[in-house]
Amino acid sequence: MRTRSSSLLLILPALVLLAAVFLYPLLRYGWLSFHASSVLTGLVPVPNGGANWGRLLDDVRFWTDAGQTLRFAICSVALELLGGLALALLLHRPLRGRGPLRALTLLPWALPTTVMALGWRWILNDPHGPLNAAIRSLGGSSYGFLSTPATTWFFVVLADVWKTMPFVALLLLAGLQTIPVDLEEALRLEGASRLQILRRLTLPLLVPYITLAVLFRLAQALGVFDLIQVLTGGGPAGSTESLALYAYLNAMRFLDFGYASTVMLATFLLLLVPLGGGWLLLRRAGLERTTERAA
Amino acid sequence: MAARPPLSSLRRQPAVLGLLAVLLLVLVSTTGLKSVQAVAAEPVPIRVLMPAPLADAVAGPVARFNASGSGVALEVIRGPLDTETISDLAISSLLLGEAPFDLLLVDVSWLAKYVAAGWFLPLERWFGPEVLAAMEPGARLGNGLGEHLWRMPLTGDTGLLYWRTDLMERPPRDTEELVAISRDLQRRGRVRWGYLWQGRQYEGLSCVMVEMLQGFGARWWDDATARTVLDSPQAVAAAGWLDALLRDGVSPKAVANYAENDALQSFAAGEAAFLRNWPYAWREIEKGGGPVKGKVGVTSMVGAPGEQGGGTLGTWGLSLIKGSPHPEEAVAVIRWLTGPVVQRQLAIEQGYAPTWSRLYDDPDLQRRAPLLAVQRQALRHPQLRPLTPAYAQLSDLLARQVNGMLTGQAGPDQTMATAQRQSLQVLRSVAGTPGSPPGSPPRSP
């Protein structure tokens, strides 16, 4: 027998856990963001009348980092989606040695981010890295991949795409496998081209999986920390610094926990916009497709 | 553990094997380690964390120290190369409470923050005022804060002005001469650029700003009120001078993206008449064997006509970590590492400026370290970066604004006004009380 109260009782432990790990820190950040808490106050919170929020609004570094974080997230998720889709379609086809191939494709995803970021740092090293060695052997001159503020962010995106594309591919591959084969056969018998099948059948049925992949990846990419910390440290000239890294630096480098909390909370509020927007957009697209098909 | 059963009989009993392994681990980690420590109790282990280049530079002296039978086993931990990264590393272990090192080599720009965090032990118990009095004036700065001495200086480096001896007879005396000579040489096609410096948005640009502010009679930081004073007319003039260098083509637009090494490479390739850099650059130029080798002179940083110029202090020194189990032995290490023997060797082999006055008077060292006279001159008028725990944030926002000016986003007035406004906001946010002195005002002992 299920009643409203008993079901509430059953989810209570989960709610308590969520409150402990999400709600409490958020409230604590909110409280700290109205206090100065740094080495100058002996790490004791002292109310500072909203000075943290005034500073945040005028903090060029915060807003620059917000733009950079968004640029990183959009570019890497878009590239991962395209690459992941191609990879999934390829791995879905009956190929010889498909099993080992699938396992091999997943390798970058299985590597710890720190390890692969160190690897990329070496690959992109100027002038000793293999990429610059290759450029020189082709007659070019070394390029400061990680020391040119205008372009370094792109190589960070590249490293991220390399690592997380397999994750997207895996999700989409799972989606592809739920599509009944006879549907595709039916379309083919009626003379549909491959592109038509992809556009009219495969992609619409994949929408829930794409939604899942994009939301997962967007949330991860907007909170990117470890890759950037190891690969560039946010440099050169702060050109790859993300909001998460800035919040971390405020706490761990500047020993300014009041402002670090403010940055943290502001980041959380800012991230709700693209994530919520993305979720709504994809949900509507998904719903339209499904209703279209039902009609 | 004398009668060990043969392994083969254990192979089918993974549980037993696992249990044994755990037992072994526990044994090793409790009794084992303790007995190892007991054996090693003589000599006393002292660990120093240093950035890799300095750790390498003192490797020879450290080996000699350990062989001298002083009762101390000195171990130098090679930290990362980058100044900020090594500070991050030190802070993360200090925040945890138990630092795995007794001594830390501290950059002058970190000191206020570490002192405010309460991570150091004062040193005046061991080093009286007569010790610093035996050092060059500039080397005495940035070691004391409040009533205490927190750091013993190991190096006395400052920013320097490099000039081409083949293009001019004597170095410029002030900023106007520097621009005049540059434009004349550029007009006559002798050199492509006049003056190369560090304009990238990073700490190096803040060091340039410290020199220019002082050179134009302005100040960044007012000790008495513990506030920044970046919007004074003199400060705007200093920023305006840097801005004009780029607009008038005395410095390339690319300077806005130059760090030390970019500027050095271009200067070493013979592309410019002047370079602002640290003492290490001289050795790099002479070692590199490029077109300007042997044609480079060094002088102290110039200021505006009638003002006293000077180089930013970039000194390193040793501080004692609070909670070190062997403070007496650690102080012995400080005394020896910052002593004249090691400093002499650092000057000869690496070009680091010594801090002891008598080393500057040593004719033999003068011969073997050619920059010595200039380095001493620079230490007479040193420029200290603001001694506040919030320095890193203030420096970041100033470098950001000035870099924005160099790339044409705002004029000097607006740039400095914005920097001042943001600095006060940061101080209010960090310290709680707007504008009031956040701690004891910095003083040199």
Descriptive labels:
heterodimer; A: 295 residues; mainly alpha; MetI-like fold; 13 helices; B: 445 residues; alpha+beta; D-Maltodextrin-Binding Protein, domain 2; six-stranded mixed sheet; four-stranded mixed sheet; 14 strands; disordered N terminus; disordered C terminus
Largest sheet of chain B: 6 strands, mixed
Question: Helicity of chain A, in percent?
Answer: over 70%
CATH topology of the largest domain in chain B: D-Maltodextrin-Binding Protein, domain 2
Overall mean pLDDT score of chain A? 89
CATH superfamily of the largest domain in chain B: Periplasmic binding protein-like II
CATH architecture of chain A: Orthogonal Bundle
Explain what the structure shows.
The complex is a heterodimer of chains A (295) and B (445). By secondary structure, chain A is mainly α. Chain A has a single domain, classed as Orthogonal Bundle (MetI-like fold), CATH 1.10.3720. In chain A, 74% of the residues lie in helices and 1% in strands. Chain A has 13 helices and 2 strands; from the N terminus they run H-E-E-H-H-H-H-H-H-H-H-H-H-H-H. Chain A has a two-stranded antiparallel ribbon with strand order 1-2. In chain A, helix 3 runs antiparallel to helix 10, helix 10 packs antiparallel against helix 13 and helix 12 runs antiparallel to helix 13. The model of chain A has no long low-confidence stretch (mean pLDDT 89). By secondary structure, chain B is α+β, with helices and mostly antiparallel strands. Chain B has 2 domains: 179 residues, Periplasmic binding protein-like II (D-Maltodextrin-Binding Protein, domain 2); 177 residues, D-Maltodextrin-Binding Protein, domain 2. Helix content of chain B is 47%, strand content 13%. In chain B, the strands form 4 sheets. In chain B, strands 1, 2, 3, 4, 7 and 14 form a 6-stranded mixed beta sheet that branches. Chains A and B meet through strand 1, strand 2, helix 2 and helix 13 of A and helix 5, helix 19 and helix 20 of B.
